[in-house]
Input
Amino acid sequence: MVEGEFVVPGDEVGVIEEFVPAAGTYARDGFVRAKAVGFVRVDALKHEASVAQAREVPLPRLGDVVHAVVTGLRDSVVYLDVFYNETRNAHYAVPFRAILHISEASNERLRSTYEVFGYGDVVRATVISRKPPYMLSTRGPEYGLILARCPRCMAPLRKRGLWLYCPSCRKTFKRRKIASRHYLLR
Output
């Protein structure tokens, strides 16, 4: 490989007889391969091959406001994929895994997370941990659902007073945690 050449994950950067894998690379089948999308960097003195990422992705930090999709539910835990960091205005091509415990879902006492969240809901939350898997919180009026779909017909739900309403099948959903700065729920 040539210094500064553009590579994608899995591309050969060099052979392990000549180079030691460094940042952004790994060794497999006798070759040093790229682990990230970026540009090849070679250190001839140390015999190291690395890949400098083409675009640095800012990791979520403690206190950042993020948007995430609910991908899994249990009685006491919600599993989410973080796809947008509102604080840093960064979209994540590959979502980050996050967890929301029932104690961080609302200021009210809940029996189950099924009461306030559903599969595919888009949630506005804040990060309350420093490293992955990220812990999120929707405590406070500015955090909660920003987009929800009807479990029957998958039409977007609309806000009607304190409840959510499906305009297609006319079903009402009580007790959902809606963000006060709702963007899409109207």
Notes: The mean pLDDT is 88. The longest strand covers residues 90-101. The two ends are 54 Å apart (CA to CA).
